Amino acid sequence: CLDIGEGGHVLSNFIKTQPIGVFMRNNTGQSTQSIWGGEQEHELYERSTQVPVVHSVSFAYKDIDTWHKVALGQEPGHIYSRNTNPTVRAFEDKVKVLEGAEAATSFSSGMAAISNTLGTFLRPGNRIVSIKDSYGGTNVIFNEFLPPLGIEVALCETGDYEQLEAEIAKGCTVLYLETPTNPTIKITDIKRLATKAHQVGALVVVDNTFATPINQLPLTLGADIVLHSASKYLGGHADALGGVICGATELVEKVYHYREINGATLAPMDAYSLLRGMKTLKLRVQRQNENAMAVARFLQDHPMVDQVNYPGLETHPGHDIAKQQMLGFGGMLSFSVHGGLDAIKQFLPRLNYAHMAANLGCVETVVGPPVTTSHVECTAEERAAAGIPEGLVRYSTGIEDIEDLLADLEQALSVLN
Ligand code: PLP
Predict the structure, then answer these.
(1) Is residue 85 within 8 Å of residue 94, measured between CB atoms?
(2) Ligand 1 within 6 A of 231 CB?
(3) 135 Cβ below 6 A of ligand 1
């Protein structure tokens, strides 16, 4: 038995701390799930109605036998907060219920969710197949970090199913997808590629950050693991970093074990902020879907706008697939204006109701070019290779009144006339 420090080996304890939505009926709606999910399973402190923030590194026992049983997973409870914590567990349970998963585990950020998941399943000599349009940080893992470990990375053109299927057919350990993509908002058919990946025994991982479980349920489309940057839509208020993965207990347990040892643990205070944000997830996302559709139509008709990328538009190349696999088209869009980066430098600072910031998915509208946001880590050549014009704007629609957002865009774009 390995000595792995204060936390002890609490892998079996992980299962015990994850009762599977026992109070949540299968037929509940997503608003009910986002409000009640993860909140009824456990005894809350002193009859509080809200999940308390448990700022405690460890959990004390009055007798060795109970402590031992909890550590072995024979009784529910917590040992050490790097492994499990009551506030963090409630957050994991809520996401698990919303994604319709058996288990979930969480991380200090979305990137920690991605790197720990890949670190769990990839070994030297393995192959991973993915798309070129993944989030910039994910691309850095693919291009910089995995190859020196002896892991072959095959990045395909997003939407080139012939290339993707040929690379999958060569054999791979992981198929990694992100749909819609950041920031080009391309759509990939999860079901089609998951079927191919399973034929070669690969694990299918889907980054569902942009869609949220309100708009897309990858596990129902064949994904094995769904992951999120919870810092975005799940939290929704741009005040907490976090990451989470969901899937079958057997898989999530392995990632949990990797994370508990690597230590990229979600902090209880952040878990609390994410939990509180998630109670309004469906309300927010529905409003963001509606606002994004209206903004996309407005921009599509604007004389200074070259191209609008939004899967809800009939002209979007992924519109038909999005209609099949998504429940809503999402709050994210991107567009390019005449005049490229120079035009963006003039127009974006004029917006009154949009933060120019490297974030997305929150209640406020947030804008920024990929050059300072999702793809800041990439060179101009890498951005060009990924089909990202230097003059692209990523627009994360907030929940403001749509009339105000449209009027704001109109007055800001008028500087370009
Ligand atoms: N996945 C996507 C699609 C993202 O947009 C981001 C961040 O923007 C991440 C993952 C990484 O998340 P985090 O910033 O929480 O590490």
Answers:
(1) no
(2) yes
(3) yes
Which of 178, 229, 266, 360 best tests ligand 1's pocket when mutated (most atoms within 8 Å of CB)?
A: 229
Residue 33's SS3 state is helix
Single pTM value for the model: 0.94
Q: Would you state the structure tokens that stand for residue 352, as one six-digit string?
A: 């009154």
Pocket flag, ligand 1, residue 178 (CB < 6 Å)? yes
**Residue 134 Cα: closest atom of ligand 1:** 3
pLDDT tens-digit series, residues 347-380: 999 999 999 999 999 999 999 998 887 777 777 7
CA of 415 from ligand 1 middle (Å) equals 32
384-403 pLDDT, tens digit each = 777 788 789 999 999 999 99
- Ligand 1: which of 114, 115, 134, 182 to mutate, judged by most atoms within 8 Å of the beta carbon? 182
Is the pLDDT at 301 greater than 90, yes or no? yes
Q: Where are the alpha helices (DSSP H) in 100-204?
A: 110-121, 136-140, 161-169, 190-199
For residue 126, the CA-to-ligand 1 centroid distance in Å is 24
Determine contact, residues 61/67, Cβ cutoff 8 Å: yes
Cα→Cα distances 77→6, 71, 269, Å: 16, 8, 19
**C-alpha separations of 283 from 31, 214, 215, 312 in Å:** 8, 10, 12, 19
CA separation for the pair 34, 32 (Å, rounded): 6
- C-alpha of 365 from chain center: 18
Share the mean pLDDT of the chain: 92
Tens of pLDDT, residues 143-175: 999 999 999 999 999 999 999 999 999 999 999
Distance 229 CA to ligand 1 centre (A): 5
Q: At what angle do helices 281-300 and 402-413 cross, to 10 degrees?
A: 40
User: What's the CA gap between 337 and 335, in Å, rounded?
Assistant: 7
User: 383 C-alpha vs ligand 1 centroid, how far in Å?
Assistant: 17
Q: What is the pLDDT of residue 2?
A: 39
Mean pLDDT of 262-266: 98
Q: Is 195 helix (H, G, I), strand (E, B) or coil?
A: helix
Which pLDDT score, from 0 to 100, does residue 27 have?
77
Indicate which residues carry an active-site annotation: 82, 135, 207, 232
Residue 217, pLDDT above cutoff 80: yes
Kindly tell me if the per-residue pLDDT of 104 is higher than 70. Answer: yes
